[in-house]
Specification:
The chain has about 450 residues and is of the alpha+beta class. It is about 20% helix and about 30% strand. A hairpin with a 5-residue loop joins strand 19 and strand 20. The two termini are about 30 Å apart.
Length: about 450
């Protein structure tokens, strides 16, 4: 792909937001690039890291992979919110030999060593070498990550080995639990960028061609990247590894980079919307948004009678996946709906019109409570896309009976997450779609002859 540089062109109503970020300068030369140009520039930023010895990894894990209880953070045995079958103390029970789970922990190359022919630099790169149970590590072998159809083996925390159910590949794969799928996806993205152009001695595998991700593999990892978003664990680990290797994982700091490299045909989606102050709203997208597509205040509409923002700033801290809306004073502690329409990515892929909700900081005042609509408001589910569960928000101003129904594309009822009488205020319903196939679904809120409908995307 030819390298393309995008000029920093602004519409008349736009200005570049200058907001502080701890990593603003680190990625300054990568902003506004996409495709091969972005991959190459990120490589320039994170290459030549400080290489640590393989033997030192057990010591480094005490700062990079330390659970809140002081134990080793092993993603192959951990049970988030529950009790794992076993845990390891740092420096104790490191592998030699093992015959079952819980015998010892070792250093797992999430990008298997055979894929890079055990070259020394990637062999000790902390961004993909994790502490894991030795037996599970062995069962993972050098299989690619993927969705398992029928498991031939399952670990104590639910990690699986079996025939692939991921589109485009039918061989054996290893599937970690949902809570850590994004972690491993972002590790693979890092490896593909960090060693871009330095992979002369690397091999091919079921998921890769040297440092390149095969199409089926990048597609599966992107799904996991979107469904299991960056956690506080990853943010802390990124900082810890930076203190050791003096480079960072760009896909933890900027999740939108992944789509800008491996799925430039995708339309932007809203990743998050926040109100840092009562006079500003920041919308974070999964892709860069193009200012040359005439992004103006008219592209956004707030409810509660506010309408369009006063102005829009393109590129929060030069990051053009973010837009800052400058708005009239909002009420504290209040939920708002934001309608977004007619936006495009930086390479002109049209974004579907959507509506998202956010809550302002602070405690709602009586005046703020009176701004609620007379009927009800159905918010956009989050996260969206999702797998396997998502939260559907809605609010009502008076007690009333209502029904929340999920439909498939053919209009058939797929689920009914909520039904009954709900009191005045904001409500959130968790919808578990584990039993459903991936695809587009609609959810509708009905009450006393009124209805509101939205769309959501289940990734599997």
């Amino acid at each position: 792909m030819k390298k393309i540089l995008f000029p920093f062109v602004l519409c008349a109503s736009l200005a570049v937001a200058q907001e502080s970020s701890p990593n603003a300068d680190y990625y300054q030369t990568a902003y506004k690039l996409y495709g091969t140009a972005l991959r190459a520039q990120l490589h320039q930023i994170i290459k030549d890291h400080t290489v640590v010895s393989y033997s030192s990894l057990y010591t480094h894990y005490q700062s990079t992979d330390n659970k809140p209880n002081g134990k080793v953070w092993d993603m192959y045995s951990d049970v988030p919110g529950g009790a794992p079958a076993y845990e390891y103390s740092h420096g104790q029970k490191t592998c030699g030999s093992y015959s079952k789970e819980g015998d010892c922990y070792n250093r797992e190359h999430s990008w298997p060593q055979s894929w890079f022919n055990s070259q020394s630099t990637p062999s000790s790169d902390l961004f993909h070498v994790y502490p894991t149970d030795g037996y599970v590590n062995n069962r993972r072998s050098n299989y690619a990550f993927g969705v398992v159809g029928v498991a031939s083996w399952t670990s104590s925390n639910g990690s699986k080995v079996g025939a692939s159910f991921s589109p485009g590949y039918t061989g054996t794969v290893f599937e970690p639990i949902n809570a850590y799928k994004g972690d491993f996806a972002r590790s693979a993205f890092y490896m593909s960028v960090r060693y871009y152009g330095e992979d002369g001695g690397w091999s091919t595998s079921s998921g890769t061609n040297k440092s390149d991700l095969l199409p089926w593999y990048s597609a599966q990892l992107l799904k996991w990247h979107l469904s299991d978003t960056v956690s506080q664990k990853e943010l802390n680990r990124n900082d810890a590894v930076f203190g050791i290797q003096h480079n960072r994982n760009p896909f933890i700091d900027h999740p939108e980079f992944a789509a800008e490299i491996w799925n430039t045909a995708a339309a932007p989606l809203v990743a998050a919307v926040t109100a840092p102050t009562l006079q500003s709203v920041v919308v974070d997208f999964t892709r860069y948004v193009d200012s040359t597509a005439s992004v103006t205040a008219a592209n956004f509409t707030l409810d509660h009678g506010i309408g369009s923002p006063a102005s829009v700033e393109w590129g929060v801290n030069s990051d053009v996946s973010k837009l800052k809306l400058n708005v009239p004073a909002l009420e504290p502690g209040t939920t708002y709906a934001l309608q977004i329409k007619n936006l495009k990515s930086i390479n002109a892929v049209t974004m579907p019109d959507t509506t998202v909700t956010f809550k302002t900081p602070g405690i709602a005042s009586v005046r703020g409570e009176r701004t609620l609509p007379a009927g009800f408001v159905l918010g956009q589910n989050y996260p969206n896309p999702f797998n396997p569960s998502t939260t559907i928000p809605f609010s009502v101003v008076t007690e009333r009976p209502l029904t929340l129904t999920v439909y498939d594309m053919l209009g058939r009822i797929a689920a009914r997450p909520a039904e009954g009488v709900y009191g005045a205020g904001e409500h959130r319903v968790t919808f578990d779609a584990s039993a459903l196939s991936g695809g587009i679904y609609y959810y509708r809120l009905d009450s006393r002859g009124e209805s509101s409908k939205r769309k959501m995307l289940l990734l599997k």
